[in-house]
Write a structure and sequence with these properties.
Oligomer: single chain
Helix content: 10-25%
CATH class of the largest domain: Alpha Beta
CATH architecture of the largest domain: Roll
Length: 188
C-alpha cells in the first residue's frame, strides 16, 4: 500500500459517536464486544465522554449529551444493514465503522455474535466481480465482512483482509456531486 508522504498518520486515535444511554453503550462495547473501557470523563455540561480500546492503541469513544436530539436512522446512519436494504446516510455522517479482526477467527466471531443475541448479516466475501460479493470464498476475495448495529443504531462491521491489495485495485475515477466520473482524478 502507498505511504503517506505529507503527515505521519498512524491510524485512528479515536472515533467519537453520540449515544442515548451510556450504561447500555458500556454494556454493549465492554461486555458484549469485550472492548476494555479505558477512560471516562464527566463533562462540565453534565454529559460524559467514554473511551473503549479497539486495539493497536486506537479507540472508539462516545459522548452522552443530556440534550442530544434522538437518532435519525436513514439520515445520520444507515437505516439497514448491508444486504438488507438501503444503506444510504447523509453527507458528513458516519455510515459505519469497521473493526479489523483476524481472518482465521472470522467464522468463530460470527457464531459468537449470534450466540450473544446480535442480529448480524451473513459473512460477505468481497471480491472484484460485478456484484462485488462472491457466493463463496475464492482467490479474488480481498476482504471478508459482517455487519450489525449497536444499541443506538450505529452500523458496525467486523472486517478481515484476506490478501494483499494490488496496485490495479485503486483505478476507478471518483464521482462528482453531479454523479459524473472525474477521469482527471484516476490514480497514476
Amino acid at each position: 500500500m502507498a505511504a503517506n508522504t505529507e503527515f505521519d498518520i498512524r491510524g485512528v486515535h479515536h472515533l467519537a459517536l453520540v449515544c442515548k444511554d451510556m450504561a447500555k453503550t458500556v454494556a454493549f462495547y465492554r461486555d458484549v464486544l469485550g472492548m476494555p473501557l479505558t477512560k471516562t470523563i464527566n463533562l462540565s455540561n453534565g454529559g460524559q465522554h467514554f473511551f473503549f480500546d479497539i486495539g493497536n492503541g486506537d479507540c472508539i469513544a462516545f459522548f452522552w449529551l443530556p440534550n442530544a436530539p434522538p437518532a435519525a436512522p436513514g439520515l445520520a446512519a444507515p437505516l439497514n444493514l448491508p444486504t438488507r436494504g438501503d444503506i444510504t446516510s447523509v453527507h458528513g455522517s458516519m455510515n459505519h465503522i469497521a473493526f479489523n479482526v483476524p481472518a482465521e477467527k472470522f467464522e468463530e466471531y460470527h457464531r459468537r455474535l449470534i450466540e450473544k443475541g446480535i442480529d448480524v448479516t451473513r459473512i460477505l466475501e468481497h471480491d472484484n466481480s460485478p456484484s462485488g460479493v462472491a457466493a463463496e470464498f475464492n482467490d479474488d476475495v480481498y476482504v471478508r465482512s459482517m455487519y450489525f448495529f449497536d444499541p443506538d443504531g450505529a452500523c458496525l462491521e467486523f472486517a478481515a483482509w484476506t490478501r494483499p491489495l494490488r496496485d490495479d485495485e485503486a483505478r476507478d475515477a471518483p464521482m462528482t456531486a453531479a454523479g459524473v466520473p472525474d477521469h482527471s482524478m484516476i490514480p497514476a
